[in-house]
């Protein structure tokens, strides 16, 4: 994933996390979902057209569609008010693909940091599946807080390392990212149990939607 694309993944994850915990109205969050979703569909399409059947380039672009379609789906749900079950079941497909891509980052690409990042995304999208596909509403705040934390752990921070040419990958850094992700999940469950008062933004959300 490019550094620019990753930065905006962080932005939309952050926005959707705020939406899930009731601080941003769904229709307001939908706009950024449409912008980033379109970017994550148009850019990989251009990359694939110019790839000359290079498998490495195709592999790098293929995963972007998983994000792009998710964000566009979220935007449509929030603007139309349709139910989120379809997105929930799509999320389990995304989670499974993220596990495979994460393993390939370790074994094929040799990038353990992004291996951990992809596995973290797999956990996040699995929570979306539980929340939307299976209707586990009790996970709403937990998923929202984890989305906010993951936005920065897997999006904003690594994006700035890439943009400044300071990105490095090795087993030690991968362990640090894994510890941060595990701590974020624990904190999300803690904060999710406490919840926050539901305000106007929460009431306006027609359907709980993921990153």
What does this structure look like?
Belongs to the AmiS/UreI family. Its main location: membrane. It is found in: Cell membrane. This is AmiS/UreI family transporter. The protein is built from 8 helices and no strands. With 211 residues, it is mostly helical. It has a single domain, classed as Serine Threonine Protein Phosphatase 5, Tetratricopeptide repeat (Alpha Horseshoe). It is globular and about 40 Å long.
Characteristics:
globular; mainly alpha; AmiS/UreI family transporter; Serine Threonine Protein Phosphatase 5, Tetratricopeptide repeat; transmembrane; 211 residues; transmembrane helix; AmiSUreI_transpt
Order of helices and strands: HHHHHHHH
Biggest β-sheet strands, sense, barrel? none
Give the CATH H-level superfamily: AmiS/UreI transporter
Q: Would you tell me the overall average pLDDT?
A: 90
Radius of gyration: 16 Å
Class per helix and strand makeup: mainly alpha
Which architecture does the CATH hierarchy give at level 2? Alpha Horseshoe
In total, how many beta strands? 0
The proportion of residues forming helix, as a percent range, comes to over 70%
Family: Belongs to the AmiS/UreI family.
Membrane topology: Multi-pass membrane protein
Pfam family, one: AmiS_UreI
Protein name: AmiS/UreI family transporter
